[in-house]
């Protein structure tokens, strides 16, 4: 993936690459693809729906397109509003943030990456209706299992068809991840995602698939965006500007997610012959939207950068498949930055270590203390 992103520096806005399909690096063309739901699909070779359908069965395809998809998003939308996101994050993460702030104020260092993994696990458990009173180690294991599952997709850049042996390993991981889902599906309230699934009459297999999807999307990308934004803020010195001008918080979150782009590549299947950027795409082709290249074309991280309409929220996708948890992700990042700056002093990074062999780029450790 890194080689592809680097090579794309030298391609045009849309290019056909042997064995990969069409590669798009222009934000406007990428948004065109994401908004053209008749011409492009998440199901079929090249789309993430193809991966999920192989894992959970043909019923799972309903979530990635059609009337059932629209119904699920509509019925669950109120769980993901800005107000609901703030309530969810404070309820599931507030005590941990208070403990982190206290440790920083006492002069200790904290591992932001390690904390983000636990915080993401607690938030996802709360949203799904799974037990939320487990020790931190349980949430670290949820995150690690999600990483193992995501890692199995690392070889799908050229094809989203999964080998039977890979599918078997993936199903074993899913069984562990969703062990508590059947009970929560039966008992969770309608203020949770699994409770809504039961209320809508979605079967347990589809609900397990949605739960697994949320675990991956809500932990991997959320933790990556949070920790990398904290690092970018420090490395550019912008944490001092944010201390001096707290109103810059929205800019800092938006810029962090733009530059980090936790989902650096988005795949689509071409459903019918169509034209994009003057090129003719044929039904059955696959498209890779290099969102990292598309969003980073606006320039390096700058907390004073004005809103860039061309990129908008491209790091969250677009169209009817725009990430349902976008507000939750923004609130999570802002909450962590506020915690790191709660002592009224800038923080410094004492040590850092990148995560290796992961699908979503991030830090294995990012240890900070107050300056």
Automatic annotation (TrEMBL):
Domain of life: Bacteria
GO molecular function, one term: oxidoreductase activity, acting on paired donors, with incorporation or reduction of molecular oxygen
Protein family per UniProt: Belongs to the cytochrome P450 family.
Upper classification of the organism: Bacteria, Bacillati, Actinomycetota, Actinomycetes, Streptosporangiales
PANTHER family reported for this sequence: CYTOCHROME P450 YJIB-RELATED, P450, PUTATIVE (EUROFUNG)-RELATED
Protein name: Cytochrome P450
Keywords from the UniProt entry: Heme, Iron, Metal-binding, Monooxygenase, Oxidoreductase
One of the Pfam families matching this protein, by short name: p450
Organism, as annotated: Actinomadura darangshiensis
InterPro entries noted in UniProt: Cyt_P450 (IPR001128), Cyt_P450_B (IPR002397), Cyt_P450_CS (IPR017972), Cyt_P450_sf (IPR036396)
